[in-house]
Amino acid sequence: MFGQLEHELELHVPASEAWDLFGALEIGKLVAQELPELFQKVELTEGDGGVGTVLKLTFAPGVPGPAGYKEKFTKIDNEKRIKETEVVEGGYLELGFTLFRVRLEVIEKGEESSIIKSTIEYEVKEENAANASLVTIQPVATIAELAKNYLNKNKAAKEAN
What is the rounded distance in angstroms from the CA atom of residue 48 to the CA atom of residue 157? Predict the structure, then answer.
């Protein structure tokens, strides 16, 4: 069984600025600092932010779904501003999923505007199809909102100087 969830959020910063945050490790650092209610820890276990980088995510107690997992950066396209990660250990894989991928895409909307499009794609074995109900776009949407607030704050600080 294959499924897909999407979320889009307009950002009031240029796509290049948004990509600086989403395209490397910066978003992981921000999430670890600013969302303790969602993530207990975000640890770099391998790599430098490029393709092949592995992060270990540990969710805060009480967050629905798996307690944590390791994800690997499988695609980073700086030209098209697309980054994909896949769960490679634990988490959804222990619940019968054969694929759990998150794609972040920064889309240029105008000179001072962009859209962060987040997509979750998953495949789950037929015998575990009921576990598909555990997949939610909410954590990704929360991260997008956090990023928007962070980018807006930085923009305001730059304009004030």
Answer: 28
Residue 62 tokens, joined: 């009480």
Kindly tell me if the per-residue pLDDT of 58 is higher than 90: yes
Residue that the structure tokens 């909102």 belong to: 145
Domains and CATH numbers, the chain: 2-160 (3.30.530.20)
96 backbone dihedrals φ, ψ, rounded to 5°: 95, 5
For 117-158, the DSSP string reads EEEEEEEE-GGGGGGGGG--SHHHHHHHHHHHHHHHHHHHHH
Which residues form the catalytic set? 83
Task: Render pLDDT for 95-113 as a digit per residue (tens, 0 to 9).
Answer: 999 999 999 999 999 899 9
Q: How confident is the model over 123-137, as pLDDT tens digits?
A: 999 999 999 999 999
Alpha-carbon dihedral sign for residues 45, 48, 51, 57: positive
Above 90 in pLDDT, residue 160?
Answer: no
